[in-house]
Design brief:
The protein has about 130 residues and is an alpha+beta fold. It contains four helices and seven strands.
């Protein structure tokens, strides 16, 4: 299999090819995988179903061991496609705590961080 990214690739039913597409994708496409659903109030307000997560957004975890927990996003890792959320940590054997990476698709945005001018304009356009 080729390791380079193909722009002509449309879709495949095979999970292996879907994973390969995500792993080999360039950063501007990997960034599109970092969308999370908006809460019902935000959906009504902005007329959008999902939005890209950003540092400072308040989110609620919807899947996994940390379901129903809320926190703010501390770090967005575009290469790995995960986010680190405050108050969501795992404890190591020696007792120290490390942030638990969570996929943005498993979260719901409760409150948007509108410090960025471009983001604010994008939301107001809708």
């Amino acid at each position: 299999m080729k390791k380079t990214f193909s722009t002509s690739w449309k879709s495949s039913k095979k999970p292996r090819k879907q994973r390969k597409y995500g792993v080999n994708a360039p950063l501007h496409i990997k960034g599109k995988f970092l969308h999370a659903t908006l809460s019902k109030e935000l959906r009504k307000k902005y007329g959008k179903r999902s939005f890209r997560v950003k540092k400072g957004d308040k989110v609620k975890v919807m899947r996994g061991n940390f379901r129903k927990k809320e926190g703010t996003i501390e770090k967005v890792d575009i290469k790995k496609g995960v986010v680190n959320i405050s108050k969501i940590e795992t404890e190591k054997k020696e007792g120290s705590k490390t942030p638990r990476p969570i996929r943005p698709s498993n979260t719901m945005i409760i409150e948007l961080n509108i410090d960025d001018k471009k983001r604010k304009e994008k939301l107001e356009r809708k």
